[in-house]
Specification:
The chain is of the alpha/beta class. Helices cover about 30% and strands about 20% of the residues. It is elongated.
Length: about 450
């Protein structure tokens, strides 16, 4: 599964006028039965939330007070995520006539039109506080605290990445929530500004919209919305017309092929840098120790005199944002593939539970072991014929480098029994590859100039 957690706002989203309908709660139970984890992310104070929502036990975590408090319904454990503003500030608000003041663990809230007085009081007291609006509510919190910061804390507890999360909301304070999640959804009753920035909008309002989203997750993991999920696409470079070429962060299977010294490593490095910039995790299987310097804080395991262990590899990838390189050069060449084959079942278990690592990169001169697959994969080989027909059959983007890119495409077509496209003679320049989408009917190969990134 791509999406392992649903992160939903409460008022105006999960709830209608403060009440969660039974049919909405039933949909959340179906989500849980599918193996996904629900997280409630709300501006409400916890004590108030407990009185109005009888379904808190369904959620793995509750992010309350607009990101300032984390609550575990199963253990009833509260974890403050922000300091509480000083009592003198609350006293000053009352002294200035501010009405309907509510004080939570860390949040202070009132209502419009008192926002001007609130801002003036913050300035007078020299406090580092921010004001967040929520359909008439005026919430005062420490700077940097919002639904996204609170959700990060919840996801860390769950061992999940925001790239495997779907967020849904309806109001001003949900912008940060939707921006953090891989897929951000607005309900039909949401404010126009939130609808504009969301990846898509449900047809149903409030709880009906949440139910609709859950049904989409259960049906096809939101694959039917893929054409709308362009916000996370990764820039590879530009084509011959200077048009940007981007790839999906999920579901791509890329073959990078070309003779030794043809620039494959430069393209691979550019892709890994792009993944790092977007905070996708990756695992590089490095047979020859060619990835000593990796972007984005990736950790290398193993060396020329010491192979890595399965245990340390799995421990590394427990962190939601960690990428790594598995250096197999310390193993004799005949044993490298066997080691990788023994690692794969463990990696598959980790991926089914956490969705990570998001990308698998296999750089070697032999065919990957049977079953070496991932939602997104980059295979690197000097010739297509070094891979099995089964591995080649999964490829949906072919990138050929070097002096004979046409030959690489033709060899790929022979191995996969695919009709070869018409290819005009081409001489690639430095930093270029010949790109082709073999699964798109009548797609023509085109020049792709790699995006240069600066670290």
């Amino acid at each position: 599964m791509r999406y392992l957690t649903l992160c939903t706002d409460y008022d105006g989203t999960l709830a209608t006028e403060g009440t969660v309908f039974p049919e909405t709660a039933a949909a959340v139970e179906q989500l849980i039965a599918s193996g996904r984890k629900p997280v409630l992310v709300t501006g409400r104070e916890l004590d108030e939330l407990k009185t109005v929502c009888p379904y808190l036990h369904l959620f793995d975590y509750v992010v309350a007070e607009n990101g300032a408090l984390l609550y575990d319904p199963k253990t009833e454990t509260e974890t403050p995520l922000a300091e509480r503003p000083p009592e003198s500030f609350v006293a000053a608000l009352r002294a200035r006539g501010v009405e309907r003041i509510s004080v939570g663990r860390s949040i202070i809230a009132t209502w419009e039109p008192w926002e001007t007085v609130v801002l003036e009081t913050i300035k007078e007291h020299g406090l580092e506080l921010q004001v967040i609006f929520n359909k008439g509510a005026v919430m005062i919190l420490p700077a940097g605290v919002n639904k996204a910061s609170g959700l990060v804390a919840a996801l860390k507890k769950l061992g999940l990445s925001p790239h495997n999360a779907v967020g849904i909301g309806d109001a001003e304070n949900d912008h940060a929530l939707l921006a953090l999640c891989e897929c951000g959804v607005a309900t039909a009753n949401a404010l126009p500004t939130l609808k504009k920035t969301a990846d898509f909008v449900t047809t149903g309002e409030r709880g009906a919209g949440v139910t609709e989203l859950i049904q989409g997750l259960l049906k096809d993991d939101l694959a039917s919305h893929e054409s709308e999920l362009t916000r996370r696409h990764i820039l590879l470079g530009t084509d011959g017309n200077e048009q940007e070429v981007r790839i999906h962060p999920y579901g791509e299977n890329i073959l990078l092929t070309g003779e030794t010294g043809s620039g494959k490593s430069a393209f691979a490095a550019a892709l890994l840098e792009g993944l790092s910039e977007a905070k996708y995790s990756f695992c590089v299987v490095d047979s020859d120790g060619n990835y000593e310097s990796i972007p984005g804080g990736a950790v290398s395991l193993g060396a020329s005199d010491r192979p890595p262990s399965v245990e340390e590899i799995l421990k590394l990838f427990r962190s939601p944002d960690q990428s790594g390189v598995i250096n197999l050069s310390g193993l004799p060449a005949p044993k490298r593939q066997a080691f990788f084959a023994s690692l794969l079942p463990h990696m598959e278990k980790l991926r089914s539970r956490t969705g990570r690592p998001h990308w698998l990169v296999i750089d070697n001169e032999t065919a990957p072991p049977e079953g070496a697959s991932a939602p997104s994969m980059l295979q690197i080989a000097s010739r297509p014929k070094l891979l099995t027909p089964a591995a080649l059959g999964e490829v949906n983007l072919l990138l050929a480098t070097g002096h004979s890119p046409q030959q690489m495409i033709q060899e790929f077509c022979q191995m996969t029994q695919t009709s070869a496209p018409r290819i005009d003679p081409v001489s690639l320049q430095l930093g270029e590859v010949l790109a082709w989408r073999p699964r798109i009917r009548n797609a023509a190969p085109f020049r792709l100039r790699i995006k240069r990134r600066t670290r």
